[in-house]
Amino acid sequence: MAAIGKWKLLTSLAFISTLAGCAGQAAPVISGLPPVPVTASGETAPVGTGRADAADDPAIWIDPANPNRALIVATDKKAGLHVYDLAGKDIAFTQAGLVNNVDVAGNIIVASDRNDGVNAHLAVFRLDADKPAIVALGRAAAGTGEAYGLCLKKTAPGAPLTAALIVKDGTVRVGTLTIADGTAPSFATQWEHKIPTQSEGCVFDGDTLYVGEEDAGVWELKPNGRTAAARMVAPVDNQRLVADVEGLATIDHKGQRYLLVSSQGDNAYAVFKLPSMDYVGRFAVAAGAFGATSETDGIEAVAGNFGPAYPDGLFLAQDGDNAPKAQNFKLVRWDQIAAALGL
Fold this sequence. Notes:
By secondary structure, the chain is mainly beta. The protein is built from 2 helices and 25 strands.
């Protein structure tokens, strides 16, 4: 075929394809590498805000006096914070308005506060686990922009708290969160870095911070003075990660630390070794005694023995479609995930 005739044919085919797409043909579903299936061993009660995208991010509190006891702290991003026991019962709630991501350090709960869309804040609470109750301690101003992602660096009891706030436009602020009796909490930025586009999920591994850029992948940020050395360590490739990249979590298993990433675009979770970022595999939470997870935002994972139901640790995932009930959080035995991945 002549070059001009071939070009006209290709152009015509492209035009016809465009018309077909405009006529309502669904775009192909993008799926990554096949994940190994696991099933949930429990679930929380649905969040209070029904028929809406409301459940977002969980964290796990471990009793410093009894490391076998744990509670779940999680956000209803349209209303406030819930506390659940490991049976999934909602045992405490506090009104806090638009809180997005949450983390815990000791008995302190910190959430990204979106009630002011122009100026970011960190909402700070104390968990009274004996009652149980969530006690508001105040809000710390954290610069301009809409507060979105949030994570805390794990430190020794009594040490200053380091928090990472992710502004919705991708601005990352890491600083010291000061909480003192009788005064409002305060946040002082230590270093800042701008990720190109919308970001949310984050987790510390020592001083290193991992941040999920939703359409692009996972960044590794290492502090360097008032900014950070940044590199993309797990790009969206439609194999390991399918956009959006959402929640991030870490867990220790048999002397190895792992990074878990919510591959929201195909309802799976990718696992990488730390600090090498060697890819390990993917898993998905399939339907079993409890429903499957899908459209997952926040995740959390923790090693430990939490009784017969979770003898070797726990993985938590927000379930974006828990129909016919409101969204909730699913609980999965970590030993089942580790076995499925051959860890």
